Amino acid sequence: MPLDLAFVWAILIAFAVLAYVVLDGFDLGIGILFPTLDDRQSRDQAMNSVAPVWDGNETWLVLGGGGLLAVFPLAFAIILPALYAPVTAMLIGLILRGVAFEFRWRTERGKFLWDWAFFGGSLIAAISQGLMLGALVQGIKVEGRAYGGGWWDWLTPFSLMTAAALVIGYALLGAGWLILKTEGDLQRHARALARPLAWALIAAIGIVSLWTPFLDPRFMDRWLSWPALFYVAPVPLLTLAAAVRLLLSIRDGHEREPFLATLALFVLCYVGLGISLYPHIVPPTITIWDAAAPDKSLSLLLYGAVVLIPLILAYTAYSYWVFRGKVDPHGGYH
Q1: Rounded Cα gap, residues 269 and 212, in angstroms
Q2: What is residue 169's predicted lDDT score, i.e. its pLDDT?
Q3: Rg (CA), the chain
Q4: Residue 3 domain flag
């Protein structure tokens, strides 16, 4: 039986996007929480907790975007014009964050400006990603082999809801990371933030989950018809279990579990998204096979991916291992 290269590449791209969301999510979340940190030492310590890994986390975004262009060029050609505005805003936000990381340590008088740039860039990037997610789920209008919608089609009540949910989720990941990596006042502050953020995220997941099946009859059939309901039921049940575990771990003062439970919620929501959209890469019309490049191109690119992806995984794992443990409150980013 020949290997379905389009399906293999769809799995790889999906994995790269998930890796980006769960890894870059917590440092975006720390940026979102930055204004709540009311003293310089707390802000320095929070930024130091992600300084060794934040730029490596964004490697997965490059891999996902570049892979989409190379492997599913038709999808790239449709999605990008549909989402020009939020994609541009996201890139501006990520640039602001990157510059703020370097410049806030080089000035005293202007440090507050770079603090706000770090917060603003993180918030803009998170909102933009949520808007793109919502626009993709609700469907992109296609005419022939090109985008057939308008300039503002990505801005709807549903996409605004997904943007709010993602901002809350990233903020909770950031709080969980600070609980894991810090001690003292900063950890206590992060734990105080985590409790209302956890409830807000659970509510947001519930709203989006209940809203999504009404966007397309196929979503309704995928989740609520029989026997499909039997196969997809574990996802909402596991999501409920992860939500309960999250709330209990925050209440009981655990250090590691709030972060891991939030990651589990993200992964389960991503699985639910895959169940809703598969096999479409540009819902509701373009499948992964419609959008895929020729098999010879997919095969050639796969040889590179077999080498590249393990290398990225290896250096990512190594960097997290080297910088494991609590952050030195008196350390610095240089």
Answers
A1: 12
A2: 96
A3: 20
A4: no
